[in-house]
Structure formats: C-alpha cells, structure tokens
Amino acid sequence: MHPKRIFEGVRRGVEHGGNKTGVPTVNGCIVFDERYLGRPLVYCGTGGTIPAKINGKPSEKKEVKEGYLAVMVGGRIGKDGIHGATFSSMQMDEHSPATAVQIGDPITQRKMYDFLLEARDAGLYSAITDNGAGGLSSSLGEMAQLSGGCEIDLEKAPLKYPGLDPWEILLSEAQERMSVAVEPEKSGAFLKLAKERSVEATVVGKFTSSGFFHVKYDGKTAAFLNMEFLHNGLPQMKLEAKWGERSEKEPKLTQPTNLESELLSLLSSYDICSKEYVVRQYDHEVGGGSCVKPLSGAQNDGPSDAGVVRPILSSQEGLVISNGICPRYSDFDTYDMASCAFDEAVRNAVCTGADPSRIAILDNFCWPDPVKGEKTPDGEYKLSQLVRACKALYDCSLAYSVPCISGKDSMKNDFWSGGKKISILPTLLFSALGYIADVSKAVTIDFKGEGESIYLLGMTRDELGGSEYFSLRKIEWGKAPKVNAREFALAYAKLHEAMQKGIISSAHDCSDGGLAVAAAESAFAGEIGAQIDLRKLPYEGEKRNDFLLFSESAGRIIISVKKGKEAEFEEIMRESSFAKIGKTTNKEKLIITGIEG
To answer: Of 120, 195, 312, 378, whose CB has the highest number of CB atoms within 10 Å?
Structure first.
C-alpha cells in the first residue's frame, strides 16, 4: 500500500476510536522517516481519573478469591485480533496474517465503559483486566494469580459467528472486551445491570485455588497449565550487547546564502508543517473539559506544546498531557535520543503550565530486532542501543524527579519483502502527565501583544546532528543534542514560578527546527510580529547564523514576558542560562538580525 493510504488509514482509525468513544484527542505528533515504510508506528494513549477509595477500599486493589465468577463483558469474540500481541512482536513480511488486526467497535466500547463505572461504584466486581494482548488467556490468567487458578468454559463465550476453534476463542483480542471477577452473591445484580444498560456480560468460568489454568470446551479439556509454569516458566534470555560509538570526520559545511529560504523549507517540511487538516478531524471538545487543545493562538491554528484537560468541571484543577519523541538522534546515540525525548515531554508540559514537581512519565519503546541471529547479524549493537536508552530513562527519571509509571515495548519492528529488510529507527516515545492547580493560568505558544520582551531560556550549541535542518540538507553527521537534566530541571522549576506569578505571556519549546521555527510558530499563532537578535543568544561552539537559527539543543524555551515584568522575570531566572533576544512588534513580520548585524 502507498504510504499516503496508510497515513490516511491511521488518521481515520484515531478519529473512529477517539471521537466515537467520547475521549477528547488533545495532544499528539506526526514524524516521518523512510525507515518507517516497512513498519509504520502508531502510538495511541488515554488517561483518566479514579477515586482514591471506592466503597471504603483502595481503588487500585484487586481481589480475587476461590469461587469468584469469571465474567466476560463487552464485544463478542471473532477471528480478528488473534495473535495480535505476537504479531506486534514478530518481523513482518508479505505473509503476515491480516486476522491479527483487531476490528474495533468504539460504540460498544463506550457503552461497556459506562456500565463498568456504574457497576464499580456499586461494588459489583472486585477485579478487572482488559482483553488486549492474549485475550481471555491473558486477562483471566493474570487475575487467576490472585486466587491460585481458574476454570474456563469456552463454549459459554459469546461469538460474533460460529466456526471458531477453542484456541481462537481463548486468544482473540479486543479493546471493547473486559474480564471481571464477581462474587457469586453479586452476580445477579451485576448481570441485571448489564442487561439494563444493553451491555453483554457472560459468566465464562470461575476462579479456583487449584494451582492450574484449566480451559475446557464442551466438557473436554483444551488446556491444563500449571500457574507457576504459565507465569514464570519461560527462562530469562541471556543476551550480549556490544556498543560502538560513531567515529567519522565531519566535513566542512558551507553556510547557505539565503537563510530565509532555508527557514521556509523547514516550515514546509513533513515533520514541521501544519497538521491542522488532521487535527481538525479529531474531537478535542467532547466532555467539555478541554482547556488547551492541539491548536492554539489568535485563530487556533498554532501547534500547542501540550493539551490541558479539566476532568472535574466544578474544579479549576487540570491535567497537562504532552509528549516527546526524537528518533533521528538514534543515528548518533540512543542515550541522547532517549534523554532528549524525556526532556521534550517534560519541557512541553512545563511550557503549558504543569508543575514540574508533579509530572509522571510513560514510556513506549519500539525497536528493531535486538537479538543476534541469521537475519539480525547486528543484534548485539541494537541491543546495546536498547541498554543505553534504558540507562537514559533511568538517569532522567532520577534527575528530574519524574517517575515512570507505565509503559510498553515492541521489539521486532522489521519488515522483509523480496529479500530486502527494512528496520525502523530505534524509537522511544515519552508521554507526560502533569498537574496544573488552576487551568486559567495555562500558557500557550502564541505571542500575545506588541512590545513584549522575548527571552530564550537555555544554552544554544552547535548540536545539529539528526536535526530537521541537517535532514533537509541530507547531512548525516554532526553532534546530537545533550541533556543536562539537573540544570534543565532547575530552570523549569523557576519558569513555573514565574508562570504562577502571571508574568509570562507565552512559552514554546525549541525542538524540531530550532529557535527560528519556534519563533515563527509563536508569531504565526499570535498573528503578531517579532524582532530577534542572534548576537544576544547564549552560545557555545562554532558560531554561524544557520547553527544559531536551527540548532536543536535541548532544554530551550522561547518566552515572551508581559510589559514591565522583565526585571521580575530576570530575578527569578538569575540562576539559569537565559537572554533577552528581542521583542514583539505590530508589523506581522519575523525579522531576525544575524551575528554580523
């Protein structure tokens, strides 16, 4: 299939799932690279709130005892989604099964969610697990750990159509299907409420203390596995990793004579250009709690750094949702790639008003096969890349005091066709969830008014390896950005202090395309001009106009400060690297003065 068809299919899938499920889509990004041609990556995530206690018990606590009923809730089982988990962890080729892909039903999913919340608050079930990877085998197998075993009668499971084998019923995956544990004396009320809410719920077995995962079909045993073997029987793999740094001489690069043309080319590149036509087809408003949406500014057409949602409409408290991803830095060092992505997720959240002391991170690893073999002779190097990315995650989590609370991985992102192998870039997405005490203090990227001072927070260096600018010019060498997490964390804390005092008009992270792109986006979004003087930038390294404009050094934020508040801002930020680099104007032009004046 043509990449454009795949792209449009992904867009329709996000629209179909999010809009119809009633979940606002408030943040995201789109990244292009030819190495995703074989295995395009799609990350979708959701978050929600949960009471600390439900009916007097800790809400996160699951309880499954012998005799509790195993109940399947939601969509019926079909041949779609079979081996979906293994499919996502295997190399793809032209013979990969289409049945591994789930056929989602967001309307059924939404009805199921609403019913389960009602049943939860009524105390009608004591544990719940989704039927994602592994279907019933995984959901019931996981909950059975709490009781010590289970018995499943597969013939009781409702099917979309006849003809499924027992193993297919057991393994079929779906997002609109859940498994719950119900006490026998509450089963009547649970099933009655499900019927009233037009949600299908079926008792498919019971939990035991037998020590076995026992699956039956029409009275005959289809599987009988020891629970200890099921969960701990696979020996841990022992693999060897070998790291080797790039060692290549950087050729002398001639600076372009027309930097205005270079900026326009960057602004029209796939990674940076406006994604409004995609974003507009997603529902950002459902639920009525979205405060900062994917697009912001005077005409709501500028790319927001993060989304802000007020989950409880009677409260001013909000959640900030952001992300960070920079896969091209993997070409240089996956440690730098991972630390920059971590920093970008945190920085985007802070730019929008999140309290940096109240941010949590989720990681999503997608990797080419890191196991050495006949088809992966460089497996040891790819494994070393994975180790270095994990080390960066560990270091950043400690330095920023940001816990990593969830995540997932997919380790076989290679595609074979006609004897040719296409492997993805080692890719790590970080999603950040932050807290903002008052959503009315959220900050957006757009310049707000004429005559406000523009500051750049952070040090600019000649770090253009893997940058949009070098990618546009097909330059494969250079230095990838480095993260000084403790220095950045201090700066973000001080910026948040300034935001709480109401002296910041706008804030926008400098990432893809560097300072020039960030300034242009803030000016476009605010429909207001700006004058910037590159001679005033704090800088280290080879000093050239194009490097100053397009460097993607981490930890940097372009900020506009309200009139008369410059001294207060500078006092707050005195321990961090920053500089006043310009001002906003009423000319609707972005004018940048180079180092020659």
So the answer is: 120
